[in-house]
Amino acid sequence: MKPKIISFPVLALAILTLALALAVPDGSLAQDKAQSPSQDQSLALPDLTAEERANFKAILRPSRLDETDDKIELVLAFWYGCGACRESEPSTNMFVNSLPPDVRVVRVPGLFESRMPFKAHGRLFLVLDELGVEESSRQAAFDTAQQIHNPNRRGYGLITKESQETFAASQGVARAAFNSAYDSPAVVGREARVQAFLDNSGLDAVPGMIINGRYVITFFQGPYYQLAEKLINHERARLAKLKPAAEKTEGQAAKATDALEEAAEKTEDQAAKAADALDEAAEKTEDQAAKAADALEEAAEKTKD
Asked: How far lies 13's CA from each of 9, 19, 25, in Å?
């Protein structure tokens, strides 16, 4: 009796079907990823005042800057040449320091295409941050970029690479280190990621906040930080509601993985049995061939006699 072997394409299709059925039983996970905040009815947005709604919007295609953890991401966008950014810095720091540990704060430069000061100051921020001195140099960068101490100021300071190099040196950065970091893959790559993130968010002014890649707040003279806190709390509640579904999906994925491993073990066992059957058939064939050869030799000897 020939051993029954399941063909690989049929087995692979069956395993794939099983994995999909377990991981996404009703398509809910894929649907959740495709929804925009305005379409997601799993948790209603908090009550917002007319002023708050005028300075807030939901991002059409939610996307975080960093997906390495499950914390709520708060992105603060600013610009060294921005007077409001400089004046609100103490309040921003107080707000950041009041946030619980489940919120991860990321500062990014406002990178807006075709607007020279933004791009130049954005590169300066990224270089200083890469070298680990941005936070300690921030106030001086604000003052120098806005030429606070220059009574005859015209336009913005820190536009050229040379002036930025001199500024960095005044903050204790070696000129060689500054020049090495300026066009480094780390800085250039991060600049591209921040640019893409801001473009997707729709943020077009600074200062501004992006809450967990889903909501954008532009600065206004009013309950700016209170609005951010409301949206952070909303995100915390939304994520808590989604957590059981995520845990269920992880469990289903684990079951799918176990099923795949079990199917792979069965396939290996079937392949081993098939190989044994082939070896046995080959041995029988060799034995039969030997017997046939012996019979031919015996018949040849009888014919000679």
From this structure: 6, 10, 17
